[in-house]
Sequence to fold (342 residues):
Amino acid sequence: MAGRFAIGVDLGGTNLRVAVVTAEGELLEKVTESTKALHGSDRVVDVMASEIRRLTAKHSGPGPLLGIGIGIPGILDLSAGILRKSPNLPGWEDYPVRQEIERRIGAPVVLDNDANAAAMGEFWLGAGRGHDSLFMLTQGTGVGGGIVLNGKIWHGMTGMAGEPGHMTVEPDGPPCGCGNRGCLEQYAGATAIMRMAREAAASGSAAGLARAMRNDPAFGAQNLHVLALAGDKAALEIFRRAGKALGIALSGVINLLNVSVYCFGGGVAGAWDMLQPHILREVRERSFVYNATAANRGLERETIITCALLGPDAGLYGAARLAILKAAEEQQQPSTCRDGPA
Fold:
């Protein structure tokens, strides 16, 4: 596949990113557009298609385009290529994403959930490189995840596999938008972390945190991480709660999947130094599979818990990889044509 390349697309609520990635995993070029500034699904798809055509023409010299992969947040009907619902893309309900893109560019598209694409990227070139399977948990506004088993995304029956954000970690915890209570997403996503920060500030027992939030209207999870690093007790307690919830959820996932790599990505995972000790403490207490296979025991196969390595580009690499795998799969399929008599 020398010289061949794929286009990877990461469509988010804030940015649209399109990249050229070779079959060997080299990122040749990346462009970014503001999703919000484009005002509406049709305009976003128009710009996406235009960038795909431009990048394909620019890089098609050394080898042909293998395919186009797109990662998109929300609930997807993978067989129909339709985005059913996405909290990060309002107005896109029941939008035929694959059909509209293919109509504009005249080429087939591989569509998948953005967390699945990120998991595939980490499996291919990041924390899962050299392993056969991986589970990735993504901490952004909410909490998502992706499962790679023996080199392939595990989608489940309807494409909804890999939703750790809606695992119950506290039966009587805060209500979640999914209808449940005490979901992991209510403790470990950026929205939840800031909810806990506001609650702490309003309680009157977190003067330093309250002051920092008053002085900075844009105070967010990254600012909270800085406070925690400085030793602020309220900030440290919030990350303890988040890490504990993550550890409880991860313990169940490890017991269920028994894969070799579990990695954490997304913006909130930037506070890995604050989260890791609490995650590991819970996993050691709750997962018998982890205790039997923990890293550094000299076992042939060990359980690795780590942060993701590719940062925000994981989804771009993964989307491109999905297109590359699809091209290889089609190349291996036997032809329906036959020479000579039957």
